[in-house]
Automatic annotation (TrEMBL):
One of its GO terms (molecular function) is ATP binding. It is an enzyme of class 7 (translocase). Belongs to the ABC transporter superfamily. This is ABC-type polar-amino-acid transporter. It comes from the Bacteria. It comes from Planobispora rosea.
Length: 250
């Protein structure tokens, strides 16, 4: 069976700064892959290359058999296959929750109003926010706003969801609700690529954990191996730091 995502020898430079130095990995359909690594290691750049927010300098990205990096590809069509959730929710403040989840469906997918509204309500229900459809973003908690952003991405019927530190901007007591929604999506079989510092989530939900450092993949394997029994010194020292922030041995 085809891989859901296939990344081959992916490079990305900004001017003379080489941020991704040859990334190779696959995600199988329905798999959850968590990407961990220190600040500046290229995690966000990797995700941004997967949905073409950044143009890779070299290498290929194939999503469900379509090579997004092919020069003849329809970039808009390709990008629609991939949903993305960021640290910042980026909801439109002057629109209700329902309108926020409908607008891209209407504008990009050209869905009719009734269909877009039905799909919006289905996905708000999926993230547990049916009763907030008529609210404005400012009336919601950060965790609720992030769940709206997830519903908005899901409403586009993506075949792959990318998450870039979706809980990092949230107060600690709001993190759990967002992770619960992500865990449910994983159980429903959504293919997910998740950059996160939530090691407990990665351990529990990820099929694989990829540890990146300095623009390369240092370790890639099941969470019990990469987090539980890391082989490389760089992975060990990173994990010591995230699992015990008071640890100064870097
Ligand atoms: N648009 C850009 N122009 C120039 N340099 C960039 C750009 N985007 C990212 N970089 C650089 O690329 C490197 C990797 O950045 P990236 O945001 O991918 O790291 P990250 O692993 O996501 O870090 P963090 O954990 O802090 O989010 C950094 O040195 C960053 O300054
Ligand atoms: Mg980042």
């Amino acid at each position: 069976m085809a891989h859901a995502v296939e990344i081959r020898d992916l490079h990305k430079s900004f001017g003379s700064l080489e941020v991704l130095k040859g990334i190779d990995f696959d995600v199988e359909p329905g798999q959850v892959v968590c990407v961990i690594g220190p600040s500046g290691s290229g995690k966000s750049t990797l995700l941004r290359c997967v949905n073409l927010l950044e143009q890779p300098t070299a290498g290929t990205v194939v999503v469900e058999g379509v090579e997004l990096t092919h020069r003849d590809v329809d970039i808009d069509a390709a990008r629609r296959r991939v949903g993305m959730v960021f640290q910042q929710f980026n909801l439109f403040p002057h629109m209700t929750v329902l309108q926020n989840v409908m607008i891209a469906q209407r504008r990009v997918l050209k869905r009719g109003k009734a269909e877009a509204e039905r799909i919006a309500r289905e996905n708000l229900d999926r993230v547990g926010l049916s009763e907030k459809a008529a609210s404005y973003p400012a009336q919601l908690s950060g965790g609720q706003q992030q769940r709206v952003a997830i519903a908005r991405a899901l409403a586009m019927s993506p075949s792959l969801m990318l998450f870039d530190e979706p809980t990092s901007a949230l107060d600690p007591e709001l993190v759990g609700d967002v992770l619960t929604v992500m865990r449910k999506l994983a159980e429903e079989g959504m293919t997910m690529l998740v950059v996160t510092h939530e090691m407990a989530f990665a351990r529990e939900v990820a099929d694989r954990v990829v540890f990146m450092d300095g623009g390369v993949i240092v370790e890639d394997g099941p969470p019990a191996q990469v987090i539980g029994a890391p082989r490389h010194e760089r992975t060990k020292s990173f994990l010591r730091r995230v699992l015990d922030p008071t640890h100064t041995d870097v």
